[in-house]
């Protein structure tokens, strides 16, 4: 499955990049394939592994925040793998060029 994850600490001011960096380190160390975007991070893996990782990331941000807003969008498709690259490649083929 592919999961789009955004975790937003509340009450820490305008810049949240220090907390986001902590989350990315956890994701990177997990071994789960991911892609960072300007508005979130996309993960790919099986349900238990990804949801456990989401929980760890949420809990990490909650340590330093009174409130945390965590948003996940799940695309779960049977018998499909390597969708982080595959979904983009499919779109590029239809558009007719490499996308930024």
Q: How is this fold's topology laid out?
A:
Elements: E1 2-10, H1 17-30, E2 34-37, E3 40-44, H2 47-62, E4 67-75, H3 83-95
Antiparallel strand pairs: 1-3, 1-4, 2-3
Helix pairs in contact: 1-2
Can you tell me about this structure?
The chain is of the alpha+beta class and 100 residues long. It has one domain (2-95): Alpha-Beta Plaits (2-Layer Sandwich). The chain is built from 3 helices and 4 strands, in the order βαββαβα. The chain has helices at residues 17-30, 47-62, 83-95; strands at 2-10, 34-37, 40-44, 67-75. Strand 2 (34-37) and strand 3 (40-44) form a beta hairpin.
Shape: globular
Helix and strand content put the structural class at alpha+beta
Report the β-strand fraction as a percent range: 25-35%
Oligomer: single chain
Query: Total strand count, please?
Result: 4
| CATH fold-level name | Alpha-Beta Plaits
The mean pLDDT is 92
Poorly predicted runs of 5 or more residues? none
Q: Characterize the largest beta sheet: strand count, sense, and whether it forms a barrel.
A: 4 strands, antiparallel
**What's the CATH architecture name?**
2-Layer Sandwich
| Rg over alpha carbons | 15 Å
User: How far apart lie the N and C ends?
Assistant: 23 Å
Instruction: Provide the domain count.
Output: 1
The amount of helix comes to: 40-55%
Order of helices and strands: EHEEHEH
Sequence of strands across the biggest β-sheet: 2-3-1-4
Please, how many helices? 3
CATH top level is Alpha Beta
